Amino acid sequence: MIVYFLASYLFGNVLTAWWIGKYYNIDLRSHRSGNLGARNAGAVIGKAAFLLTFLGDALKGVLVILAGRYLGYPEWAVAMGGLLVICGHLFPFWLKGKGGKGIATFVGIGLTFNILFAIAFSVAFFLVIPFIRSATLSMIFAYCAYIGSVFYFNEVHHAWPILIVILLIMYRHRFDFKQSFDEKKWKHA
């Protein structure tokens, strides 16, 4: 199990945006947000870079969850693999802890770990976004719905590492949340 945990963290260190930037001879860390994620890759390089980065980072989450299940580990350990792949993505050791923000990897983990939690996440996001008109702020509701579904289905004993993942991602997005909220406030002033 220790090997699985270590491999999950190391796998998280494979940042798709970094490799796509390398292909285009662009260091995304020195452009726009400096973030090594799909959004920044798309803003700097284009839609194809966004899509490839999103899919590559989501695939990390999917593969770690599937690997844990294939190896027959208990659900809490599989969820811990999800937490560690996110930690690798957010805090890659080889880039001094400056990686992506984890949304795409979370989507991969969320879809694979428990489809009911993923449905709650998606429904909340798509219900709220037409009213708020901000993907960033809609994510807050989606994460709350995910957390709520974990408690509703009484799965905290299995899914607690995923709840930590959500807190980490929300912490990494705290400035984005504030910026989006301030923009909304300014538009309605």
TrEMBL record:
Enzyme Commission no: 2.3.1.275
Pathway assigned to this chain's UniProt record: Lipid metabolism; phospholipid metabolism
Any GO CC annotation of this UniProt entry: plasma membrane
Intracellular or extracellular location(s): Cell membrane
Reaction it catalyzes: an acyl phosphate + sn-glycerol 3-phosphate = a 1-acyl-sn-glycero-3-phosphate + phosphate
GO molecular function, one term: acyl-phosphate glycerol-3-phosphate acyltransferase activity
Residues passing through the membrane, by range: 6-24, 36-56, 76-95, 102-128, 140-171
InterPro entries, sorted: G3P_acylTferase_PlsY
Gene Ontology biological process terms from the UniProt entry: phospholipid biosynthetic process
Enzymatic class: transferase
Membrane topology listed for this record: Multi-pass membrane protein
Primary location class: membrane
Keywords, in A-Z order: Acyltransferase, Cell membrane, Lipid biosynthesis, Lipid metabolism, Membrane, Phospholipid biosynthesis, Phospholipid metabolism, Transferase, Transmembrane, Transmembrane helix
A Pfam cross-reference name: G3P_acyltransf
Subunit field text: Probably interacts with PlsX.
Similarity field: Belongs to the PlsY family.
Its job: Catalyzes the transfer of an acyl group from acyl-phosphate (acyl-PO(4)) to glycerol-3-phosphate (G3P) to form lysophosphatidic acid (LPA). This enzyme utilizes acyl-phosphate as fatty acyl donor, but not acyl-CoA or acyl-ACP.
Protein's UniProt name: Glycerol-3-phosphate acyltransferase
Originating organism: Paenisporosarcina antarctica
